[in-house]
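Write out the 3D structure for:
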Amino acid sequence: MSGEDTIKKTITMTLNYDTLIKELGESGDKDSTDIHDLSSQALMDKLDRFVDYRYDKKKYGMHQVNLTIHGVPTGFEPADFCELIKDHCDDISSFTSIEGGFSVSLFIDVN
């Protein structure tokens, strides 16, 4: 991210993989069975709601979302997940693996 972008708001999202997938299933929008596709689709739904809320409140500007996902299944690759969501963000940091999951910072311009 460039130094000229001032962060308007920083939020932390701590999510559980199974809960994230369950929420996606309840919305009826599940169109894949791949663990990376499902989790990225579910996260993008959450990010869309966050952006819509901030936009409706006229809270424009760059927002940082510090994301942590716990309970990822065996075979889950954070790099593959980040690749799938990168076009949904203005910028994305390198992920950090943690026990049972990973953390990453997403940067989203609300305008």
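Residues 7-110 form one domain.
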